[in-house]
Design brief:
Strand order of the largest sheet: 3-2-1-12-13-7
Bound molecules: 5'-O-[(L-methionyl)-sulphamoyl]adenosine
CATH architecture of the largest domain: 3-Layer(aba) Sandwich
Strand content: 15-25%
Helix content: 25-40%
Largest sheet: 6 strands, parallel
Number of helices: 22
Shape: globular
Distance between the termini: 70 Å
Length: 680
């Protein structure tokens, strides 16, 4: 079987792990565990990107040397991945000697083939994304299009990579490898970018030292992305120069299948630069690059300025590691943007995990098997009824479907298939009523039915094990089964009915997934510092506990546009009722929301505010809300504000919002008031 090699991006050490980085790491762990279950040799690499200007500056700001910073920061990463049951086979740091040597070896291979030359670089650079920009790529005011921060002018001697020469070879490569980038919509974006023609890439810097020295010219340090990308190879001991590199031989394509999981923001580096470097070195590019989407949190972007990076540790503490892994893999379609919602996590924990799977195991194992079958797995007695045959067929169909989805890197669909089986098994229990069969003298039908349920649960236990290894283990323990031992060459994925041995003694324990009652739910959310809008709603939440910033006094509520000079000039702040009555406040139902091109702050909303036609309002809230999170919300608007033009678009009013150091929140009314209702 062809070896499988999966990687996460190597993370910058200027921040601790958050739910976004945990997402890639958990996905890589799930894929690795799945491939191992299938009997494939599998390897999972993660690590840290420790060089470059961003890290050097972060260290300086903290009064540390870059090496001190990176040495300190590796620990939280290692600990978090361990806590989240992410069992990587290797953890590479780009400051390690084994990496530096191999990054230099890759450089030499490309240079010897003539695709690196010395020149002079003059253009713009964003430290945030460690990327070069030409003027046409920048936003107004010379801002980086990703970080919306000013870029820096750079003029220095630099080595260049002949990327321009690889425009056509890359397009040919894409043509020959139609699954090279997933999802395919993203592949199309990559192709159109390359079709526009590529410029040579500056590959070294002389103005700072925190990087890997260029071979033969130590005045220069390597461009941090060249250094970083080569981690995928250096961790295997490649490229091979004069010494053997068995891992490289085993796992690097074409011998192995290599899948890079990356966020959509760093796809270009992986799908354009990286294969170009490899082609230039005469090496085989990765098999596939999977670009996943970005997570927002309860509808809000995570950002340093808001201090709302959601940390996985408190979530794991509150809800359990496995439910958190399950939720992340289940709720977000891999490849699309998604929203982390505490309310949805709780709903899935209570619904699919506790009521669905936990209850299935419990209702049969903890009661019927103990009371009526001597605590042992019964033998199937036959004959099969139509219901039995349907369950058997459904089990095999779902197992096949889940495997197909995992092969296609669609964890959410795989779980969907597994939960179709959970529902089918619960329906089977409802219909066959084993509690009624237990009352009969002759226990043969009971044994047959219970065997069917438990064999289905056994299969489910195997299929959930990549996602929830701890719970899968507990489930097997309760059934009296040995732990699953993935072995190369041995496919453990369920493919035939009847693998459950009869006669073994079961050991029912605590419910697999304890349900959170309303009080526990409220306590968990309070501990996390999360406030939900309304019970069960798509929550607008923020987390005090997770904000690294110290608490400042709450700021005044503010509107989303600047206050008028008149209000600023007044010293007596009280107003008469007549003054207040002049302001027409109404309830507006958000119908659509979208970003305003070229503006990092504005969203264009259309609202039903009781007018004959939808009203357009431009609100300065883009940094706080994902547009889709606003649709369907009832907000309070100032309806009689003189219309004004912003970015060429007319804004017919203002959305009220309040902010403090934890974020900005649009005003809302409690209840489904008719759009257009007056707020008094
Ligand atoms: N160091 C580079 C990667 C080099 S790989 C050779 C880097 N590091 S990063 O720490 O900034 O980002 C790592 C990954 O986290 C990226 O894939 C990025 O897309 C992902 N995410 C950061 N925020 C995220 C979310 N909010 N949601 C999902 N993923 C997110 O880039």
């Amino acid at each position: 079987m062809k070896p499988f090699y999966v990687t996460t991006p190597i993370y910058y050490v200027n921040d601790r792990p958050h739910i976004g980085t945990a997402y890639s790491t958990i996905a890589a762990d799930v894929l690795t565990r799945y491939q191992r279950l299938r009997g494939r040799p599998a390897r999972f690499l993660t690590g840290l990107d420790e060089h470059g200007l961003k890290i050097a500056r972060t260290a300086e700001a903290q009064g540390l040397t870059p090496q001190e910073l990176t040495d300190q920061m590796q620990e939280p990463f290692r600990q978090t991945w361990k806590l989240l049951s992410c069992e990587h086979d290797d953890f590479i740091r780009t400051t390690e000697r084994r990496h530096k040597r191999k990054a230099q070896a890759l450089w030499r291979m490309i240079q010897e083939r003539g695709d690196i030359y010395l020149g002079e670089y003059e253009d713009w650079y964003c430290v945030g994304c460690e990327t070069f920009y030409t003027e046409k790529d920048l936003l107004e005011g010379k801002l980086c299009p990703q970080h919306l921060k000013p870029v820096e002018r750079i003029k220095e001697s630099s080595y260049f990579f002949r990327l321009s020469k690889y425009t056509q070879p890359l397009l040919d490569y894409y043509e020959a490898h139609p699954d090279f980038v997933k999802p395919s919509a993203r592949f199309n974006e990559v192709k159109s970018f390359v079709r526009e023609g590529l410029r040579d890439l500056s590959l070294s810097r002389t103005s700072f030292r925190w990087g890997i020295p260029v071979p033969g010219d130590p005045e220069h340090v390597m461009y941090v992305w060249f250094d970083a990308l080569s981690n995928y190879m250096s961790a295997l001991g490649g490229p091979v120069e004069n010494e053997p590199a068995p891992l490289f031989e085993q796992f690097w394509p074409p011998n192995g299948d290599l899948v890079h999981l990356v966020g959509k923001d760093i796809l270009r580096f992986h799908a354009v630069y990286w294969p170009a470097f490899l082609l230039a070195a005469g090496l085989t590019p990765p098999t596939q690059i999977w670009a996943h989407g970005w997570l927002t949190v309860n509808g809000q972007k995570m950002s340093k300025s808001l201090g709302n990076f959601l940390r996985p540790e408190p979530l794991a503490e509150a809800f359990g590691v496995d439910p958190l892994r399950y939720y992340l893999m289940r709720d977000v379609a891999f490849g699309q943007d998604g929203d982390f919602s505490h309310a949805n996590l709780i709903a899935r924990l209570n619904g699919e995990l506790a009521n669905g799977l936990g209850n299935l195991l419990n209702r049969v194992l903890a009661s019927i098997v103990q009371k009526s079958l001597g605590g042992r797995i019964p033998a199937p007695t036959g004959p099969d009824t139509a219901e039995d045959l349907t369950l058997q067929a459904e089990a095999l169909r779902c197992a096949r479907a889940a495997a197909e989805q995992l092969d296609a890197v669609a964890p959410q669909r795989a779980l969907e298939a597994v939960w179709e089986l959970v529902s089918a098994a619960n329906r089977y229990v409802d219909r066959t009523e084993p509690w009624a069969l237990a009352k009969l003298e002759d226990k043969s039908r009971l044994s047959h039915v219970v065997y069917h349920v438990l064999e289905t649960v056994r299969m489910i236990g195997v299929m959930i094990s990549p996602f929830m290894p701890g719970k899968a283990h507990e489930l097997r323990e309760q059934m009296g089964l040995h732990p699953l031992m993935a072995t190369v060459g041995c496919d453990l994925w369920p493919s035939v009915w009847g693998g459950l041995p009869s006669g073994i003694t079961t050991q029912p324990g605590k419910p697999l997934f304890p349900r959170l009652d309303k009080d526990q739910e409220a306590a968990a959310l309070e501990n996390l510092g999360v406030k939900l809008d309304a019970p069960g709603s798509h929550a607008a939440a923020t987390s005090k506990a997770q904000s690294p910033k110290s608490q400042k006094p709450a700021q005044e509520p503010k509107v989303t546009e600047p206050a008028s000079p008149a209000t600023q000039a007044s010293t007596d702040t009280s107003i008469s009722y007549d003054d207040f009555a002049k302001v027409e406040l109404r309830v507006g139902l958000v119908l659509t929301a979208e970003p305003v091109p070229k503006s990092d702050k504005l969203l264009r909303l259309t609202l039903d505010a009781g007018d004959p036609a939808p009203r357009q309002i431009l609100a300065g809230i883009a940094q706080h809300y994902a547009p889709e999170a606003l649709v369907g919300k009832r907000v309070i608007i100032v309806a009689n504000l003189k219309p004004r033009k912003l970015m060429g678009l007319e804004s017919q009013g203002m959305v009220l919002a309040a902010s403090d150091e934890t974020g900005l929140f649009v005003s809302a009314v409690a209840g489904d008031v008719k759009p257009g209702s007056l707020v008094k």
